[in-house]
Amino acid sequence: MDDAKKARAELVEIGRLIEQKDLIVGPGGNTSARVGDVIYVKASGKTFEEAVESDYVGVDLRSGELVDGTLKPTSEIAMHRGCYLVRDDIRAVVHTHPPFALGVASAGKTIAPMCPDYVALIGPAIPLIDYVVPTGQEIADAVVPFIKEHHAVLLANHGVVAVGRTLREAYYRNLFVESAAKALVAAEVVGTLRPLTHEEVAEIDGLATEKYRRDLLKDQR
């Protein structure tokens, strides 16, 4: 199986998981994976639960031209290309509309580091980006500067974008942001969230066990 076919197969698999975990409803959201200088991305209007390999089309990373497939790529293709171009370590981008994270972001709040999993998967506090039109160059210009320094961002009135060294890592980052949003809501119902201190974050970040867990996600294909 060649690299492009492998990427498409994994995009289909992760797309099914995204739908099963209620990170999206209908044709919203999009995913991509980089293969050399081509990125394979979900075609516009396709749903994750129904998409097949041919519904993920290849776009030239530099020019943005369609080079593999016939369907129209997502209208947010500029955002995907921008993420890859700004960081060499990125090999996948996953954008979803998870309800709790969407609600938190749309209330103008972000999610502070609260537990070891947050530190291991996300790193620093997730930036909150004010609402922009969810298409074209405008969303790329809003998201890409933050992706230079962060693995995930919250989009007010829109959703979540997360990147990874593998597609599975980018997917798990989306899934964790939604889990963290649920925890934040629960904390605010019963009291007030106590985020980890800078010292606690640094201590967790330096643990050999956390490095091992990160490396497992990096090496999974």
Features:
221 residues, alpha+beta, L-fuculose-1-phosphate Aldolase
Describe this protein's structure:
- This protein has a single domain (3-219), classed as Class II aldolase/adducin N-terminal domain (L-fuculose-1-phosphate Aldolase, 3-Layer(aba) Sandwich).
- The protein is 44% helix and 16% strand.
- The model has no long low-confidence stretch (mean pLDDT 93).
- It has eight helices and eight strands, in the order αββββαβααβαββααα.
- α2 (77-86) packs parallel to α5 (136-147).
- It has an eight-stranded mixed β-sheet, with helices on both faces.
- It has 221 residues and is of the alpha+beta class.
- β6, α5 and β7 form a beta-alpha-beta unit.
